[in-house]
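Quick one, tokens below. Sequence please?
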């Protein structure tokens, strides 16, 4: 990361606007949701890691990704306990648990209790909020 760029958690909204695409800004900073079944990473099933599109922190690994048929990339666990934070989200007349990046605070998606074993969790994450690093030896961009 460019050393002149402030630490992710310290960035102003103007800085985020200059770093992120319009779509990324909408999801990560305005807590948006991409249309279901639109995500580029929805059907990725090769080995690798999923990083935050805002700050690059590793959030999920491919071995916990599964086909939930919800229309968004779904994982049954996070890479480690501090990778994400959760909070109650009362918007849109629902009570959901929002998932944000533990490093930059960007909105990622929501977590539900209808996932598979062993956790029973479904982390339902916007594809736009993630970047995929394949584990096949190719360098991350
Ligand atoms: Fe982040």
């Amino acid at each position: 990361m460019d050393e002149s760029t402030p630490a992710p958690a310290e960035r102003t909204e103007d800085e985020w606007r200059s770093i992120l695409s319009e779509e990324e800004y909408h999801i990560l900073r305005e807590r948006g949701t991409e249309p279901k079944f639109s995500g580029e990473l929805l059907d990725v099933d090769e080995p690798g890691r999923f990083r935050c599109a805002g700050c690059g922190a590793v959030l999920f690994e491919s071995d916990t990704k599964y086909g939930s048929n919800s229309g968004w990339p779904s994982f049954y666990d996070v890479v480690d306990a501090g990778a994400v934070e959760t909070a109650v989200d009362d918007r849109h007349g629902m009570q959901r648990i929002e998932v944000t990046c533990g490093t930059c605070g960007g909105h990622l998606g929501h977590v539900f209790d209808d996932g598979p074993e062993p956790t029973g969790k479904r982390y339902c994450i916007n594809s736009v909020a993630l970047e995929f690093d394949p584990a096949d030896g190719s360098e991350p961009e």
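The mean pLDDT is 93. Helices lie at 13-19, 22-30.
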